[in-house]
């Protein structure tokens, strides 16, 4: 003997409209306005380099000023929200190759990269040449971000030297 099927109550028109409106699409459209494809690509590359959202918040300049919570929310949305992830991937694929190269040049240096740059001495009479940094790139291709150039390494090394972050500085 089965239990009788009770018809579900018919929702009122106002309730039906409210039920159809999902918060998901509202969130997607809200995020699409502030987060540009370039920001998403920069966020992804920076997090993959540093594995630290706080470092990304402090060290990356996005097109808008995002607080740490917004960066965390966007990162998790890119990872776990299929709608946002799909839209962001489609938008990033449409970026011009020159724009992608410019974004990749802004990626933060990882701790491993900076440890290798630390070993380039600063007490020599002359500054290390581009050849020194090119050699460093060739010796450690697995450590350095793929789009790093000898010039980029030299500029970062000079910044590290300026702030007394090299091993042979006091």
UniProtKB/TrEMBL annotation:
<dbReference type="InterPro" id="IPR037912">
    <property type="entry name" value="MCRS1"/>
</dbReference>
<feature type="region of interest" description="Disordered">
    <location>
        <begin position="1"/>
        <end position="21"/>
    </location>
</feature>
<dbReference type="GO" id="GO:0071339">
    <property type="term" value="C:MLL1 complex"/>
</dbReference>
<dbReference type="GO" id="GO:0031011">
    <property type="term" value="C:Ino80 complex"/>
</dbReference>
<dbReference type="GO" id="GO:0002151">
    <property type="term" value="F:G-quadruplex RNA binding"/>
</dbReference>
<dbReference type="Pfam" id="PF13325">
    <property type="entry name" value="MCRS_N"/>
</dbReference>
<feature type="compositionally biased region" description="Pro residues">
    <location>
        <begin position="1"/>
        <end position="12"/>
    </location>
</feature>
<dbReference type="InterPro" id="IPR025999">
    <property type="entry name" value="MCRS_N"/>
</dbReference>
<protein>
    <submittedName>
        <fullName>MCRS1 protein</fullName>
    </submittedName>
</protein>
<dbReference type="GO" id="GO:0045944">
    <property type="term" value="P:positive regulation of transcription by RNA polymerase II"/>
</dbReference>
<feature type="domain" description="Microspherule protein N-terminal">
    <location>
        <begin position="34"/>
        <end position="170"/>
    </location>
</feature>
<dbReference type="GO" id="GO:0044545">
    <property type="term" value="C:NSL complex"/>
</dbReference>
